[in-house]
């Protein structure tokens, strides 16, 4: 074994042992929910699947109830397994349950400290969140609607002519909407820049999984001299790649400003109004990059879930089509539009069911940390305890939802139908709710209405879809097999007539 590797391993192990000892000693006066048995030093870190942790966490919730505790190295995580406890802690006590634990690898090194999703609660987070809210808030609906209208037509055209590339078409649709608003440009099918962006998303998600990086489980290791931080070179390599993907887009904006061809967009305003106190170049890049990622990945994955639900539970598609045909014509008279939204309550229910059905983006939620000691129902937690809402366990709990494994939009036909945050946790709870939830919901609504109106989604019986194991990370490949056909020649003609122009628009 290389002597340096041996030295790093010994130092890391000794430091981890000390960190675990100190953390355990300091927590003896506190009382946690049931602790899942683990192994010395590492705790439960080696028990977690490297991806798709939803079923693992759901099985533990089935065994331990509404709350349980796991140890990832020196970090203590409490899983919240019901909407009741999520509401009580993360929403009603959001003032102290809205920070983030330290992530020396994925935030400090890989992201240069700049990813808002991992920032601790504080002034920097509030300032960055404020900037993002300005572009993604409900006040910007009209800005996004024009692009969603255009890009969804392009989406239909891609499905008609490239049905085998449906997953790439979903990515292009989602990415092009946000790129139009942020950078003033559109994306093309199989655009290498879009592929690179989704690569950065997947690299980040891979490294963010609990137990992947020792330093994220034992943050004290980050205090080692840099030459002993054996993980740092890998993190810096990922940082430079991600930064380069973001910088290419910002440099292109600056070049278009110089030659007078840049359209008005968020990046232009951002550059004009940048406050150097908060936004150095790295922070600029990761603020804009986070917008690209958040605006692209949620929509891409959700439209894929829609298709999986349509192929495996086709009964609801019949009911959705009946309403679409009543409003837009049974013979492909016209495409659904924003003006039809109030006449299509079933589509709104479908969208909420897409977000609930298989929470494939954050299967165990996103970790938050409490900033003060707290007590709840006989338990007591020290400041710094990490909490996650167990998204998979909640979504598939029959105590929360009738027939939870079934794709059944009717469950959302209630008084909360038009409240996009009610009835599911897809966008997170409390003050860390996804800042772009409204845009994501609008993206998925338009894609849902138009895709269901124009296409059939058929499960390949020779290759059935395992809806419990749809991969989160796909490496630009289809997440599952599916047969896609246009509904009729009339629908094909409608797409040719109304959507071709969208593929050539600037």
From TrEMBL:
CDD domains for the chain: CYP64-like
Transmembrane stretches, start-end: 6-23
Keyword Cell wall biogenesis/degradation in annotation: no
Keywords assigned by UniProt, alphabetized: Heme, Iron, Membrane, Metal-binding, Monooxygenase, Oxidoreductase, Transmembrane, Transmembrane helix
Binding of heme, residues: 434
Cofactor(s) needed for function: heme
Matches recorded under InterPro entries: Cyt_P450, Cyt_P450_CS, Cyt_P450_E_grp-I, Cyt_P450_sf, Cytochrome_P450_fung
GO MF term set: heme binding; iron ion binding; monooxygenase activity; oxidoreductase activity, acting on paired donors, with incorporation or reduction of molecular oxygen
Family affiliation: Belongs to the cytochrome P450 family.
Protein name: Cytochrome P450 monooxygenase
Species per Swiss-Prot/TrEMBL record: Lachnellula hyalina
């Amino acid at each position: 074994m290389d002597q340096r590797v041996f030295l790093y391993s010994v130092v890391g192990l000794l430091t981890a042992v000390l960190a675990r000892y100190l953390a355990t000693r300091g927590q003896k006066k506190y009382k946690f929910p049931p602790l899942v048995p683990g192994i010395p030093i590492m705790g439960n870190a080696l028990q977690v699947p490297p991806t798709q942790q939803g079923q693992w966490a759901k099985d533990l919730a089935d065994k331990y109830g509404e709350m349980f505790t796991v140890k990832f190295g020196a970090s203590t995580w409490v899983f919240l397994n019901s909407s009741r406890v999520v509401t009580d802690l993360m929403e009603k006590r959001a003032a102290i349950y809205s920070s983030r634990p330290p992530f020396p690898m994925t935030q400090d090194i890989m992201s240069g400290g700049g990813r808002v999703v991992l920032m601790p609660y504080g002034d920097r987070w509030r300032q960055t969140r404020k900037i993002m809210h300005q572009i993604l808030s409900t006040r910007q609906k009209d800005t996004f609607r024009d692009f969603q209208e255009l890009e969804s037509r392009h989406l239909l055209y891609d499905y008609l002519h490239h049905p085998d590339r449906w997953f790439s078409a979903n990515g292009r649709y989602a990415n092009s909407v946000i790129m139009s608003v942020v950078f003033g440009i559109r994306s093309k099918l199989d655009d290498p820049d879009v592929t690179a962006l989704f690569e950065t998303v997947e690299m980040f998600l891979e490294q963010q999984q609990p137990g992947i990086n020792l330093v994220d489980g034992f943050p004290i290791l980050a205090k080692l001299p840099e030459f002993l931080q054996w993980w740092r070179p890998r993190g810096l390599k990922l940082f430079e790649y991600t930064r380069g993907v973001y910088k290419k887009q910002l440099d292109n904006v600056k070049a278009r400003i110089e030659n007078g061809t840049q359209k008005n967009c968020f990046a232009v305003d951002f550059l004009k109004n940048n406050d150097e106190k908060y936004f150095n170049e790295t922070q600029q890049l990761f603020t804009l990059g986070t917008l690209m990622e958040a605006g692209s990945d949620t929509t891409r994955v959700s439209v894929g879930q829609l298709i999986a639900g349509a192929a495996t539970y086709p009964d609801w598609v019949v009911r959705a089509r009946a309403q679409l045909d009543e409003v837009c014509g049974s013979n492909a008279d016209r495409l659904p539009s924003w003006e039809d939204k109030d006449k299509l309550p079933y589509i709104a229910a479908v969208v909420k069911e897409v977000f609930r059905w298989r929470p494939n983006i954050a299967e165990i939620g996103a970790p938050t940390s409490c900033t003060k000691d707290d007590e709840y129902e006989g338990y007591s937690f020290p400041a710094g305890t990490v909490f996650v809402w167990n998204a998979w366990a909640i979504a598939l709990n029959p105590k929360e939802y009738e027939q939870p494994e079934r794709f059944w939009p009717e469950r959302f036909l209630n008084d909360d139908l038009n409240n996009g945050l009610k009835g599911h946790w897809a966008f997170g709870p409390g003050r860390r709710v996804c800042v772009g939830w409204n845009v994501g919901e609008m993206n998925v609504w338009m894609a849902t209405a138009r895709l269901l109106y124009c296409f059939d989604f058929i499960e390949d019986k020779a290759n059935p879809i395992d809806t419990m194991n749809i991969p989160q990370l796909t490496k630009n490949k289809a997440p599952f097999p599916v047969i896609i056909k246009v509904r009729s020649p009339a629908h094909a003609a409608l797409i040719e007539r109304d959507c071709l122009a969208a593929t050539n628009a600037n």
